[in-house]
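Worked example 3. Consider a protein that binds inosinic acid.
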Amino acid sequence: MGQSQITIHNKAFRPYLSVAQLDEAVTGLAARISADYAGREPLFVVVLTGAFMFASDLLKRVTGPCEIVFIRVASYEGTDSSGVVQEIMGLREEVHGRHLIIVEDIVDTGTTMHHLVPKLQANGPASVEIATLFFKPESLRHEINLRYVALEIPNDFVVGYGLDYDGLGRNLPDVYVAV
Ligand code: IMP
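Given these inputs, the predicted complex is written out as structure tokens:
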């Protein structure tokens, strides 16, 4: 891993998690999922863009047959109680009766998952679980069922390995934290 600080959009970040540390966490999570879903042919629902690198490494290590679909979640101001409505784009696969595993980069406040899970559940899947690379427990503001967490992290801003700071940093193989 790069040992020194980097700057993105004039903000300083220091090295936080190496490729090896990420690999170990993702490999462990893939083993758990593989064991839990043996014989069930799950449908992985990858949330773009942040989860692309995590999903790639995770799914290479998941054994057994599975399907993979990439979605985008659009938020806009709406009239429900939270003021945010999530629209799912790209989900063309038949969801009814399937075992869904949402693949997300980070659960921060939990707002995204709080809105996405019921929308998927409305299509009648057999089950819905969440697999997230990062979870910030101190930030959580909604009750959500997080079955698969690769790494719990403090309430700090991180970039790299798919996650961005204002559009930049997704291509970094290691994860950096704001200083
Ligand atoms: P939530 O809806 O508050 O749980 O936030 C989820 C989304 O916020 C993630 O999918 C990220 O796009 C973004 N996010 C939250 N924390 C970070 C971070 O530390 N770095 C980069 N993106 C973040």
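Take a moment to read the result before moving on. The chain has one domain: 6-76+92-178. The longest strand covers residues 67-77.
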